[in-house]
Design a protein that fits this description.
about 350 residues, Rossmann fold, 12 helices, five-stranded parallel β-sheet, alpha/beta
């Protein structure tokens, strides 16, 4: 294997990752790993992402500049940003997304070397359609993002958390919110009942039972503004339901102050992991969003039909609908929650 050797005293590197929220959050380990390997004084890291997710990169000590793309503006915006990026004279571009947009940027922006996260489409086809697994087990989203760095001589290693950072204003806002709700830092759980696809959601009745079993501890529910199904949880006296009331970085700050987190396979699961919080991950139909840190307890049911789809969009092919999630019992989750939070 031939490693790329930088010749400048300070290396300038561009990382490209646009979405999803979970994948972008996992990709925050890339700049940290580069800084660990080369030293903070020897590397300057720029990061290109979607404008609506850029708040997750702010205040990150490993990232020197954040470039943002408004995906609604089309090719004109891409050409405009690429023109500016070309002035930076990058030593390396790491395309950690590998989609059409990132390919266009790789073509338009000059650098001494490019590396690209492989899509492994053939492996994915075999896994989803024939349940023939050619991927390394256990699955790990962060490993898939960090392994390509081996092409430039950086061995795979997870950088230590946290990989999400907050400004003073965000911290003050969340501390005020917690005071208003009369809950103390590190004395509440965060539950994340939602996910992008319904098949990835642990049944709401299971969440209700888990909340009932956790009645001695305040529980903060986090979900997006469209996730109104979480309103059925309001009947519990220990619930603080913040559905639709916090943005991404505020949700991360609430997780930061939590005692432990229980989450479906969704972006906030990776917030918790990148903050180093004790976490229970409820993993169902999809194979590629698996957490990677030892602070995360993965609960899953081994079934011949898993995984049924790339992102968890289905359809469910089991004779018992959503068996992979239903068979993770509230009793099992509660037991693990008690273990990781003590």
């Amino acid at each position: 294997m031939t490693f790329f050797v930088f010749t400048l005293n300070t290396m300038k590197i561009l990382i490209i990752r646009f979405s999803s929220i979970g994948d972008l959050t996992q990709a925050l380990s890339i700049p940290a790993r580069l800084v660990e390997h080369y030293g903070k004084d020897n590397v300057q890291i720029h990061f290109l992402t979607r404008e609506d997710f850029s708040q997750l990169l702010k205040n990150n000590p490993s990232i020197h500049q954040v470039w943002t793309l408004n995906r609604k503006k089309g090719l004109t915006e891409i050409f405009k940003i690429a023109k500016e990026l070309n002035k930076e004279n990058y030593d390396l571009i790491y395309d950690a997304h590998n989609n059409l947009r990132s390919f266009i940027f790789r073509c338009l922006v000059a650098s001494k070397k490019n590396i690209v996260k492989p899509m492994d489409r053939w492996k994915r086809f075999l896994l989803i359609n024939f349940k023939i697994n050619k991927f390394q087990k256990p699955f790990s989203g962060q490993r898939d993002l960090l392994k390509p760095l081996e092409k430039i001589g950086i061995p795979f290693l997870l950088p230590k958390p946290p990989q999400l950072f907050f400004d003073a204003q965000t911290i003050q806002k969340i501390e005020t919110l917690l005071n208003e709700k009369k809950i103390n830092k590190n004395e509440y759980f965060v539950f994340v009942p939602s996910a992008a696809y319904p098949l990835k959601r642990w049944p709401i009745a299971h969440w209700q039972k888990l909340i009932s079993m956790s009645s001695n501890t305040p529980v903060v529910v986090l979900a997006g503004p469209t996730d109104q199904f979480t309103q059925v949880l309001n009947s519990f006296t220990n619930i603080i339901n913040l559905t639709g009331q916090t943005n991404l970085i505020e949700s991360a700050a609430i997780i930061h102050f939590a005692k432990a987190v229980v989450a479906n396979d969704t972006g906030l699961l990776h917030f918790s992991e990148q903050l180093g919080k004790p976490t229970i991950a409820l993993m169902g139909p999809a194979p590629f969003g698996f957490p990677s840190r030892q602070t995360t307890c993965i609960l899953e049911i081994e079934l011949k039909c898993r995984p049924c789809s790339k992102h968890g969009q289905g359809p469910c092919t089991n004779t018992q609908f959503q068996k992979c999630m239903i068979d993770i019992t509230p009793e099992q989750v509660h037991q693990n929650l008690m273990e990781i939070s003590t």
